[in-house]
Amino acid sequence: MKAVVVHGKGDFRYEDVPDPKAGEEEVVVKIGRCGICAADPKIYHGNAYFAQTVYDHAPIVAGHEYVGEVVELGKGAKEKYGLNVGDHAIMEILIPCMKCYFCKRGRYNLCEVHTITGISGPNGGWAEYMKFPKGAIVWKVPNEIPWGSGGRP
After folding, report:
1. Any bridge partners for residue 138, and if so which?
2. pLDDT grade for 150, boundaries at 50, 70 and 90
């Protein structure tokens, strides 16, 4: 598949990468839309306070604001997320550990040990397909919502 891959400062490439495959409790979506965040040009130019984190995880597919159509569900994903192939879904960009002080208190947005798609963890959504990894917080989006609003065209 085609994807925008960060290789370093000033080095974003549109290239072929392997298609993602769903493992246990994982979801693969065909990307419907992926935004360009204000942080993305800063990452490109090296001005984001976390740019070095991105470069340390390179090569990595960029993009952390996305919605897609479910094309593959790994074992247990259907039950865990209530999804079927053909549904629309999003995932929160922060993948919490669910074990630290904050996660145990329901404040996973403050997780001390987390990854962020397209930045410090799994590949992001500037690609044809994306995998929502095990441990991700995934939400079903009603199919009647337009892609530009988080759903269908």
Report:
1. 91
2. low
**Rg of the chain's alpha carbons, rounded to an integer?**
15
Q: What is the DSSP letter of 152?
A: B
The DSSP 8-state label assigned to residue 4 in this structure reads: E
**The tokens of 15 are what?**
């290239």
Q: What one-character DSSP code corresponds to residue 49?
A: T
Q: How far apart are CA 22 and CA 113, in angstroms?
A: 23
Q: Alpha-carbon distance 45 to 115, whole Å?
A: 22
Is 87:67 a contact under the CB 8 Å cutoff? no
Q: Is this prediction's pTM over 0.85?
A: yes
- The answer to whether the beta carbons of residues 15 and 141 sit under 8 Å apart is no
Rounded Cα distance between 137 and 35, Å, is: 19
| 26-66 per-position pLDDT tens digit | 999 999 999 999 999 999 999 998 999 999 999 999 999 99
